Every structure is written in structure tokens, then in C-alpha cells.
Amino acid sequence: MNRILKLILAANLLVLAVLAFVYPDLMVGPGKLIPGHQKLATDCFACHAPFGGATSGRCTTCHKPEEVGRLTTAGQPIAKPLASTPFHQKLIKDDCVACHSDHAGVKRFRQEGRFNHALLQADSRQQCQTCHRSPADSLHQQITGNCNQCHSQEKWTPATFDHDKHFLLDRDHNAKCATCHVRNDYSRYTCYGCHEHTPEKIRREHIEEGIRDFTNCVECHRSGDEHDIRMPGGEGRRGKKHDD
Amino acid sequence: MASSTSISASLWRQHILPFTLLVGLLAAATLAGDYLLHRLDLAWVGRYLGIPGTLLIIGSLVYSLRKRKVIAAGNPKNLLSLHEAAAWLGSLFVLIHAGIHFNAILPWLATVAMGINVISGMVGKMLLGRSRQHVQEQREHYQLRGLSRSEIEQAVFWDAVTLDAMTQWRKVHIPIFAVFAVLSLGHILGIFLFWGWR
């Protein structure tokens, strides 16, 4: 490499080094900052600790944990909060970067609006409806109680609940939830909610078969098919199949 | 003139086309790797591919040290093969790492410098030697046919021009590597300075 070429290269690299210090947001920053942090674009160390990355301690200098979701950093009430209930106060620790990323290039790798529910305190974790609204469809409008009954906290869909595992909802059992789950209590059910299965009729049929314990219907009947009977502990242990 | 055109066509077909295909393969492998990582929801892996890519490129420099007699151990021919393979694979990792996302300028300048470095290296490996031999063979061929010196030079004119351009391109390899190294170092320092490793 001749001397002139070396000098040209060194001069170019020097210019780039100077540019990196003058315009760090353009030269080394991974994309634009979110609009609220535009003023910090050239002040990397406002959020980043040298050799430590963005730290929650620096976030909370401006964003007081007790005020997040309630007041702006200027102390003004937030006109349109993103969540119906401020939940940052219910977090087990201040770990801002677990959910938030400010640079466009980093945000690209994160799914917006998703956070780990394990960061919530245990009691808040069960209060889904303080942050989430129940879907407006007819099924969900019938349901009260905790979403955990049918959905995981990692993903809303697919729902973790498979009704067919407990009882197959065939065309003869295409009923409203409350027909079997009285008062939307999904920890219990009854088969006596329709005219077909009256307590007297069920009792008589089972006694005829020599079956005396018939309080928990789905223990043996997993569908409306009267021949699909699964006796606990093996077929025929507590009686024979219906053959009427 | 017709003869000269057919010789140039031969040079393209036998040397420049395979070279272009190998460069194209690097580009295609980069796009395929990037696509697969996104498709498999593994885009985050691309963030860390810069590390093995850099290590491979650094590893490939053993040949350069051997060539300049900084180290004495190792068969230069084997080390050259290692240099070519490790630099190609390392560049592939770095290109996938860069993705198709344009953010900071410094790492992109480093990526461009690396691209020029890879191409200049491949020119040296695939084209220069064979093209030089090709032009020499053509000269000898015309000499045997009894053409005068000026007629021979006229006949191989375009091949000679191409060869000369390649020689110049080859000279880019070392200076552009210095630029690539400094820019990459700037990028790596920036990452260590600002990134939170968790």
C-alpha cells in the first residue's frame, strides 16, 4: 500500500470517527428513537450505561414507577392512558427493557404490546379484566371469572381449553354454556338443565343397570352417544353398557 | 475483430461467468438464510451471527500472516484454501447478520467494505491467474499464426484491458480490508459500549 493511499484511508476513517461522535444516532444508533424520546437522540448515555446497555435505573429517573400510566414525565395527568388500569405499580420489579425498546431497529425484533405476565405480582396476575376487555362475542359474554380457565397468559389463541376432552358438544348438545354451567360457574356443571335428563329418569335408568353412583355424568359419558361409555377402572366394573 | 470478440466471449464464459455465479451464490445464500430465520421466527439468531462471522474472518487471516512470514507454521496452499472458505462463510454470516435492515451508517459502511473485500479476494482467486494465462495463450496462438506484434496486441486488446482492470481490482484487497477492519472495530466497540448483553 503506498503512502498516499494510506493517508487518504486514515483521513477518511478519522472523518468517520468524528462523525460517529457528532452524529451517534445516525452512525451507530440502531434506528430512530420513539417520538417521545427524540430529544435524546444524540445523548446516548441518557439511557445507556457504558458497557451495560439501557438500564431501568436511567428510565426511572424521568419515569417514576408510581406515576407511570397516571402522570406524564412533566407531572400532568395522562389524558388517554393506554391501559384501563395503571399496572406498572403492580410489577414485581422495575425491568423496563423487558418490554420496552426505543430504537426502530430493536423494536423490529419485538412484538408490540406483548409482555411477560410473570412480571406482574401474583394477585394482579389473576385480575385479567383490569387490563383486558372480554371479547364481545356471545360465548365470551356469557362467561365470568378468570380467563385462565381457558386461555394461557402466553397466548390468547389457541385457547388451552378443549371442551371435547370433557364432553363432546354434538348437535344434541349445542346448548348455551349456562344450560350446563349454571350462573356461569365453569368449575361445576349439571346435566339436569334440560328436559331430556331429569333426575328421576336418570336415577331410574342407572338403578336398572345396577349403577348406584351416577352423580358425575361425564366420568362415564364423554358424549351424547349412549354407547360411548367409559367406566372408570375398566369397562363393566360398576355395571354393564346401556343396551336400550 | 471477430476473432477478438469470440476470445472475449470465451473469457466471459470460462472465467467471469463462474465468478459471477459464486458471488451470486453468496447473495442468494444470504437472502435464503435471512428468509429462513424470519420464517422460523428465529430472526434474533441473526443478531448473534455477527460473532461467528467475525471469528471466521479473523481465523482466515492466518493465511495472510503466513504469506507475510509473520508465522512460519502451516502449508500455504492449505492455509489459502482455509482463508477462502472461512472468509466466504464468515462473510455470509455477517451478511445475514446485517440483514436487509438499514439502521446505523457505520456498520453498513463496514458491510459494504466487507463486500468489496470479498469480491476483490475472489477476483484474485478465480479470475486473475486464469485470465493472465488465457491472454498469454492467445498471444502465443497469434504468434504461431504469424501475426505481427502490433496485430497481436490489437487482437488481444479487450482481453488485455479486462486483465488490467482485474489487476487493479486485486490491488484493492488489502487497503479495503484495512478499512473493513477499522469500521468493524468501530461497530463492535459501539455494541460493547451501548448494548446490554442479556
Question: Would you mind describing this structure in some detail?
Answer:
- The complex is a heterodimer of chains A (about 240) and B (about 200).
- Chain A is mainly alpha-helical.
- Chain A has three domains: about 30 residues; about 100 residues, no CATH class; about 90 residues, no CATH class.
- Chain A is about 25% helix and about 0% strand.
- Chain A has a two-stranded antiparallel ribbon with strand order 1-2.
- The longest helix of chain A has 20 residues.
- Chain A is elongated and about 105 Å long.
- By secondary structure, chain B is mainly α.
- Chain B has one domain.
- Helices cover about 85% and strands about 0% of the residues of chain B.
- Chain B is built from eight helices and no strands.
- Chain B is elongated and about 75 Å long.
- The model of chain B has no long low-confidence stretch (mean pLDDT about 85).
- At the A-B interface, helix 1 and strand 2 of A face helix 2, helix 5 and helix 8 of B.
Total domain count of chain B: 1
Low-pLDDT residue spans of chain A: 235-244
Q: Could you estimate the helical fraction of the residues of chain A in percent?
A: 25-40%
Shape of chain A: elongated
Number of helices of chain A: 9
> What is the rounded distance between the termini of chain A?
99 Å
Radius of gyration of chain B: 21 Å
Largest interface: A-B, 30 and 26 residues
Give the averaged pLDDT of chain B, no decimals.
85
Proportion of β residues of chain A? under 5%
Would you tell me the structural class of the helices and strands of chain B? mainly alpha
The main sheet of chain B comes to: none
Question: Could you name the ranges of chain B where pLDDT drops below 50 across 5 or more consecutive residues?
Answer: none
Strand order, largest beta sheet of chain A: 1-2
Helix/strand order of chain B, N-terminal first: HHHHHHHH
Distance between the termini of chain B: 65 Å
Q: Approximately what portion of the residues of chain B adopt beta-strand conformation?
A: under 5%
Described by the principal axes of the CA atoms, the overall outline of chain B is: elongated
